[in-house]
Amino acid sequence: MPQNAYKWLSGKAVPRASSVYEDWARVLGGMLTAPFLASSSFDEFQDAVGAHFAVPETALSALRSEAGLRSGTLPALAVVGSSVTRLNGRHPAEHWLEGVYLAISPAWSRAEAGRLIIGTVAIHADAMQRLQIRYSENLFSRQVLMSGQLRSDGRTAQSALACSYTQRLFFLALNMPTPPANLISGILSGAAVHDPDARATACRILLLRAHGSHAEDLVARTGYLDADGALVESELAALGYRGDAERAALGTGIVDFLNAPSPSGLSEAKITDLAPLERIIDRISPSECLQKSASWH
User: Fold this and answer.
1) I want to staple 41 with a disulfide (CB 3.0 to 4.6 A). Which of 74, 117, 157, 211 is the partner?
2) How many domains are there within the chain?
3) Residues 75 and 121 in one domain
4) CA-CA distance, 214 to 221, in Å (whole number)?
């Protein structure tokens, strides 16, 4: 709706559907990714577009003036209508990371080789407006908690998670998603808690937003799971995601994404590989999320 576009440009709202940013990426020829468009500042966007197109300075000045921008201010994607501004020193993209997630990754335990492990993640801002992250797993009937500060530069979010059980550090690198961050991909690395060889290990990890839930609500769902799309679909259904056929396709897609071999030999999670799954999960997200998407709150 036109009024929503004006709210986006003026800084009063953010589109809560990743497809908005994907559409703009296509308009621009595909040289910029949807997450970049969602989180970039005016100046960053200007530099990126200027590398591919000749944009007159008069046009840029007019856009700054229409958006009410002063030279040096950094609202995201003002050129195409974004609204995110820096709040209390936090990067504009950080606020849509906050929430509770079900985490799915390949199991590291040799006893559970080939299976998945389900954990929980909670991301929140502390009193100093710094993002904190808590990751919890159920390992052989013991709840293991890891926590740390989550730092973001607008493209990625990283944390060194301290394990309360072993005192080891686990490193988490997440790709910055587009709003509403229903699905976040990344890499988790460290050494398995129960492993006499203490192997250095890294794997893909996916975070699925649990709308309206608290981390405590998901504890019963944590543990090991066979790498079966139907079982992952059951987890999605328990989180409130709708649409049997698309939910089944998403469950299969999640298993394939987590287990896909890397042709480069690196353990990596390319955000472009996640785009098809992101489109599905946004379509089948619980009704309260869809209502927010429609209103751009």
Assistant:
1) 74
2) 2
3) no
4) 13
**pTM reported for the whole predicted model:** 0.73
- If asked whether residues 111 and 74 sit together in one domain, one would say no
Q: Which tokens in the block code for residue 116?
A: 């998945």
Same domain, 208 and 64: no
Contact residues for 216 (Cβ-Cβ < 8 A; gap 6+): none
* DSSP assignment of 239-257: TT---HHHHHHHHHHHHHH
pLDDT for the residue 77: 46
pLDDT tens column, 132-155: 999 999 987 888 999 999 998 878
Measured CA to CA, the distance from residue 101 to residue 181 in angstroms comes to 10
67 and 119 together in one domain: no
Say whether the peptide bond before residue 180 is cis (omega within 30 degrees of 0): yes
SS3 content of the chain, % helix, strand, coil (to 5): 35, 25, 35
194 plus 51 within the same structural domain = no
C-alpha span between 99 and 122 (Å, rounded): 6
Q: Hey, what are 37's tokens?
A: 């468009």
119, 103 Cβ separation under 8 angstroms = yes
Residue range of the domain that includes 18: 2-80
Do 20 and 123 reside in the same domain of the chain?
no
Among residues 35, 54, 80, which one ends one of the domains? 80
Give residue-wise pLDDT tens across range 20-48: 777 777 777 666 777 676 666 667 777 77
Which residue type, as a one-letter code, is found at position 52?
H
In the chain, beta strands by DSSP E:
99-106, 115-125, 131-139, 142-149, 151-152, 156-163, 169-175, 183-191, 200-209, 223-226
Q: Which of 80, 113, 133 is the last residue of a domain?
A: 80
